[in-house]
Amino acid sequence: MKFVIAPDSFKETLSAEKAAIAIQKGFLRVFPEAEYQLLPVGDGGEGTLDVIAKIRQAERQVVSVTGPLLKSIVAPIAFIDERKTAFIEMAEICGLQLVPEDKRDPLAISTRGVGEMINYAMEQGAEEIVIGVGGTASNDGGIGMAAGLGYVFLNEAGEMVTPVGENLAQIHTIKKEGVRPQLAKTKIRVITDVTNPLVGVNGATFIFGAQKGLSEAKMPQVDEMMAAFYDRFFGIPEVPGSGAGGGMGAGLLQFASAELTLGIDYVIEELQLKEACADADFVIVGEGRMDGQTSSGKAPLGVARAVAGRVPVIAICGSVTMDSEHLYEQGITAIFPSIASVATFDEVRRDAEQNLVRTAENVARLLKSAK
Questions:
Q1: For residue 66, what are the contacts with CB-CB under 8 A and spacing of at least 6?
Q2: What is the largest CA-CA distance in the chain?
Q3: Which of 194, 195, 208, 235 is deepest in the core (most CB within 10 A)?
Q4: What share of the chain is helix, strand, coil (3-state, %, to 5)?
């Protein structure tokens, strides 16, 4: 019997690799003689850089850039092909895990470091830059990133505007004299963890704002502010994934002429996951929470679609919500949450690995009894 174990990271809890190892540990208690292939995945969000760097045997280094709270941080970047291609993960620069819970406000979070990292990649000779834009704490439409690239934002009085989400409505003029000419010659590929649009009820603000600390009462105003900014300067993009990363998808489209690709599809191709699953008996996927967002381009459903109809796909997650039921119609065979009891998030983080091992063992016992 062969199991392919291909989970995404569990947000702020376990990396994809640690999740895969925990799931395997549970299955080994029941199927010690089975064949296992561990293929941790990423979809553009937290942990994607680790996955890609390992696949491509990339050269990794760390760089000092501006962090989410406008203080200097150290973040990773990876290179392949003699530094002709660079990989950047936005979550490592302004991700939710970098912001203390009491300071989470997506309208005040800076994405400047993303633009600074792009500039660094170009300085190193990169001709193509791949950027994962999921798992962020921001909702600024990419203006912080643009400032890092050299764009300047001015208000009606000609004064510089701090490029964060709460100031979108103040921007009257955009100057690009400080942007490096090299940017126009560099291929920017954005890998997104969702297909959501920039604005509207399914856009960046309404769907992802709450998990970043935005109150529901503010969402209509913030969404309108984002729409007004883009409508004024560029037109509202209709490209799927424009709403990823708090509007970073749209920002990279407009400020860096990027192209957008669904992250899980990119990673699946790099992993050659379809080939690995060709002779599998079961595929095990997972993420921190299975919910309505999972069908918007997240890793578990991407894996399920890649092997559709050929092998059962079992999801082991932290928690599951009522709006996840439609995932059964999209390739997921069964979903098993691993959180054992009502708990604080600190307790969930503490017990995440053992909960995953235990749940994986129980799933394996069920499969064995059904043989």
A1: 72, 73, 110, 112, 113, 116, 148
A2: 73
A3: 194
A4: 45, 20, 35
Between vectors from CA 271 to CA 265 and to CA 275, what angle results, nearest 5°? 95
31: which 2 tokens? 């199927």
Sequential pLDDT tens for the chain (371 residues): 999 999 999 988 899 999 999 999 999 999 999 999 999 999 888 889 999 999 999 999 999 999 999 999 999 999 999 999 999 999 999 999 999 999 999 999 999 999 999 999 999 999 999 999 989 999 999 999 999 999 999 999 999 999 999 999 999 999 999 999 999 999 999 999 899 999 999 999 999 999 999 999 999 999 999 999 999 999 999 999 999 999 999 999 999 999 999 999 999 999 999 999 999 999 999 998 888 666 666 888 889 989 877 899 999 998 888 777 788 888 899 999 999 888 888 888 888 999 999 999 999 999 999 87
Domains of the chain (ranges plus CATH)?
2-40+272-370 (3.40.50.10350), 48-263 (3.90.1510.10)
